[in-house]
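Problem 3 from the worked examples.
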Amino acid sequence: MCDYSLESFARRDARAGDQLRTEKIGGYGSVGLVTPAAPDVAVCLCPGTRLIVSGIPATLQKAWNVGEVAIATFVQRDAPRLGGLLSRDGRYRDGVRFDGGDHSLVLFQEFPVGVEVSVEMIQGVPQAVIEEKAPLEPVSV
């Protein structure tokens, strides 16, 4: 649910309604998701979680074939192994596939700091259960 590079940091599971942003976490420069209220706590997503990604810079909009705001699904790529150990490029596995067309996986490591991510729906959890367990918190803008 969180990149291996974030496993040694404080973290929590995402909740529907979370308003997140990309941030470099810890001293190693790994990009992850945080809430504005707790920028030192990585927020982990379940594969299949539906997201609204906003504030995508123009240069990346063109590269990723999306607009400033895009709907995406959180995915984790399989970590390649070399001799039973994770290979160097297997360190990062968390990313998104944008809706519409044939979009390849975009790792969170490719995102600049400050891109906003709204958690819309968590795969496999009925919406009524999500709303009961995690009511939306007011977010100041």
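Problem 4, a separate protein:
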Amino acid sequence: MKALACLSLVACGIFAVAPSAAAQTAARGPQPTPPCGPNLAVKNVDKQSRCFELRTYTVREGSSIDLLHSRFRDHTTALFKKHGMTVVGYWQPVAKLDTLIYILAYQDAAARDAAWAAFNVDPEWVKTRTEMQVNVQVDNVFMAATDYSPIK
């Protein structure tokens, strides 16, 4: 994943990166989460860190970035909160206008997997993704906060 000059918390050295999951489709459930969260046995990682997930959506040809932003603005963010996902933030890369980057935080890997499982079968999400279809490539990276990070 290409880091943007401190738009990515990884590039700024605020997070340590855990193993990456394979690219996935946005509407389908992600792969099981690697070990992530408190008490992770990784050097320089805070023992109380939550599990962070950096997600990058690149809109494929024929789809609309504006529709993707509308879907997140009007529906997805509320559904994330409903299912216990903490939205850290959303970013629009200024040199990649077909891309949306965001970070979610979870208590741990198990909480992340449970949240996504519930999200993916939520009738409101099923309706939203059907009515507001956007073809995207999804890349994600699982992260834990370093022991010197201001965000844990």
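Solution to problem 4. Residues 1-28 have pLDDT under 50 and may be disordered. The chain is about 25% helix and 30% strand.
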